[in-house]
Design brief:
- 2 copies of one chain form a homodimer.
- Chain A has about 450 residues and is α/β, with parallel strands linked by helices.
- Helix content of chain A is about 30%, strand content about 20%.
- In chain A, the strands form 7 sheets. In chain A, strands 5-2-1-9-20-19 form a 6-stranded mixed β-sheet, with helices on one face. Chain A has a 4-stranded parallel β-sheet with strand order 13-12-11-17.
- In chain A, helix 1 runs parallel beside helix 9 and helix 4 packs antiparallel against helix 5.
- The termini of chain A are far apart.
- Chains A and B meet through strand 1, strand 2, strand 5, strand 8 and helix 4 of A and strand 1, strand 2, strand 5, strand 8 and helix 4 of B.
């Protein structure tokens, strides 16, 4: 809004990231006297809270992804581009794209989310994938399903144990939900599909550094989640730290554990774009924004959602990296931009900006079939009631009638048939079978007769 | 059945490939006095006739894929393994797996399907993917959707034209259905989602070497398909040959055409496994099997489906590479194996083997919304009636109640909302945007104001 060459044209608002925060900003700018350019490296808005259900074969990827440009197809002042932003130049007021091109902005909103932190061990990423994108979730699903396939072709007991061991690092909502869902997949959904092992014996280990699960929730809910997970057979290790991740396993403290599948649901790191801003960052790489979510010294550059660490929370608590916080920041920033654009158009003075204040409406995590915990205001729910509340709220928040219907149907099928339907393994997921079946090692897979023999001898 | 060491144990039947043919063989062996080992490199049975609907965002991948081991989970004499077979050793009676292991068989059934032939130009595969697997279909979908995204960020008219040009090579059912569906995607489903171009102008070119489309169907249906495709705006080139495929386009005869998206739906080549058999092959690389579908000289090795070229069709016509032919071969071979195993168990002499005879129950192809052609016996259907018949038959043939319901719902949504729902772009599909927007080339993407300007100047 400061570039004089655009004094007569509507200002250009560039929003980077089409997640919860970015989408909310654009929604508040519909019909405002501004041109909005929304840039995301993906073509879809991703409903991240249900990503773990894609990773565990309950939902199909498409059910939690919605084309961004479809969202805004009737908004005549919004342009959507699929591009990757690599750098922000606050002096030139432009962003640099991976294609080598640039785009100028009058106002910039950065809402590109967070990335996964492996603390000082980026090399662990190869063996312990994080779960941020739809591709991540599909890769984890393929890895999990492939591990069961490998176990079916395995005879060496130790190797089979490794196939059937799943380690989840991190006891926040993602880790808790993923651990519960993997155990449920093994126990309910696929246990009858394998001949050579009892899938119900699959070992799911949840490693949490803190002394309780779900540190963002109440002590009561933490305890309930722990109890529920243990009851369905998840091995929860509190106050435990992963000291090494290697091909085929992890070290937890001094304890070496062989596991084909390790998923990283722990540390959160700032988005690489935050670094290019040349602004102060907190220890997690988030931008230390002003109370109005703008970057110090640049009132026309805002940072919201997981990229931002607002300093102004009145009660001094950190704003958690959750969807409602991103939506609230997006709403405030969108309203600021719309109000200032209107004031400018009408020749009125710029209105004062509000300060961001996070309203915690509660949080919840699901643990498995008809089991969940929820802190809603003063209310502590658990068990079936919490689970139904969880289902209902997530259905409401989903984008698109079709997605709501299909998710509801998928859940219905999963619930009543005890099965998971999205069990397709994509891509070339390498087998990790170590041993051969039967007496003759040169007859690897063995015949069915051998298999039957081996099975009988083990029973 | 010839290995004396297994004289008392049930014989081991190894079936390679869990497609239409392989699945049918196993179905006929349920409960027979045999042990069945079913090996596929994928974990799912794929309903290939609907693959083009995944490539064009109508269906989600999971809706046409079904876990193979789930199909046979109640069959106590069937073992399922996800493995890749690289070689058959008829002397040793074993198959070699990509993991380096081997598996011995008493009876072997090869049903691994066909691969794509680029005639003498394997290097074309990189620029013009074929469509055989679920991964292929997802990659084509991503490429098609990305082309529209690229067009939105493009200003150079020629480059934009290339983004919006889709070339389909091959005028069989796959090519016809794909061409119709891509045009429909552009015209109906996404035309309102883009600002800088009219998606309805997307150019879909269908290149067919023969002088008519759908050579396997009646002349009448070929003519009807041609007319329907031309009416919805597909450019059909009959008697035309692709003479070159390069990055970003093709040459058709002497005519050079720039196109971001080229899909190969033409030649069929034999499966690599057929070569390792050391058996006679036809010019398409298919095994020239005996009338009972066994390999000459090896009555205990059968080849069925797209891998086989049975020589015995009484009317002398070639058996087409379609699902019904694979199913019919699978049924016959399964029944032969079951009958011989029972005779052996009961000490009866081996019954005589039947000769394969293909029963052509008809064929059909869909062209778009409420448009299809069908030859069913003497009946020639077209238009809405053929389309409804097509929908009904494909729904019936799908595996699983859930898949049927979800496909029906997806079709219902696509029909009544004129939209396609599976529009997620997966993986890193590179942008092919060539030019920059606006007057200043260093401001590549341009601002929305620039975009609006450019749009106005073009209208």
């Amino acid at each position: 809004m400061s570039d004089p060459s655009h004094a007569t044209a509507p200002p250009t608002i560039v929003v980077v990231g089409g997640g919860f925060g970015g989408i909310e900003v654009v929604r508040r700018l519909l019909g405002a006297p501004v041109d909005v350019v929304l840039i995301d490296r993906q073509n879809h808005f991703l409903f991240q809270p249900l990503l773990y259900q894609v990773a565990t074969a309950v939902l199909a990827p498409v059910e939690i992804a919605f084309p961004i440009r479809r969202l805004f197809r009737d908004a005549r002042n919004v342009w959507v581009f699929q591009e990757t932003v690599v750098k922000v130049d606050r002096v030139e007021q432009s962003i640099h794209l991976s294609s080598g091109r640039r785009a100028r902005y009058d106002v910039l909103v950065l809402a590109a989310g967070a990335s996964t932190s492996y603390y000082a061990h980026p090399e662990w990423a190869r063996h312990a994938p994080g779960m941020k994108s739809i591709e991540d979730a599909i890769a984890i699903r393929s890895r999990v399903l492939r591990a069961f396939e490998d176990a079916e072709a395995e005879t060496d007991p130790e190797a089979m144990r490794a196939h059937l061991t799943f380690v989840i690092v991190g006891g926040g909502p993602t880790g808790v939900e993923l651990a519960g869902a993997i155990k449920e997949l093994a126990v309910d959904a696929i246990s009858r599909d394998f001949r050579r092992f009892d899938a119900r014996t699959a070992r799911v280990v949840l490693v949490q550094g803190a002394d309780r699960l779900l540190p963002g929730m109440s002590e009561e809910s933490s305890a309930a989640a722990l109890e529920s997970l243990r009851r369905i057979g998840v091995e929860v290790r509190l106050g435990a730290h992963v000291t090494e991740v290697f091909e085929g396993g992890v070290r937890i403290g001094e304890d070496r554990l062989l596991a084909d599948t390790v998923v990283w649901a722990a540390g959160v790191a700032g988005h690489p774009l935050a670094g290019s801003l040349d602004a102060p960052l907190d220890p997690h790489g988030r931008v230390l924004v002003e109370p109005d979510c703008s970057v110090p010294g640049s009132p026309n550059v805002f940072v919201i959602g997981d990229m931002a660490a607002p300093r102004s929370d009145p009660d001094g608590r950190a704003v958690p990296g959750v969807a409602p916080a991103a939506i609230q920041m997006g709403r405030m920033v969108g309203e600021i931009i719309a109000a200032e654009a209107k004031a400018r158009r009408d020749g009125r003075p710029r209105p004062p900006r509000p300060r961001f204040c996070y309203h915690d409406r509660g949080s919840m995590a699901t643990i498995g079939r008809a089991k969940a915990v929820a802190d809603l205001g003063g209310l502590r729910l658990r068990g079936l009631v919490a689970w139904l509340a969880w289902l209902f709220i997530h259905l409401l928040l989903l984008v698109g009638v079709r997605n709501r219907l299909f998710v509801l149907l998928s859940w219905g099928f999963a619930y009543f048939s005890f099965s998971k339907s999205s069990r397709t393994i994509y891509g070339n997921v390498p087998s990790r079978v170590r041993s051969s079946l039967g007496a003759r090692p040169d007859e690897g897979l063995g015949t069915a007769a051998d298999a039957a023999e081996a099975l009988r001898s083990r029973l």
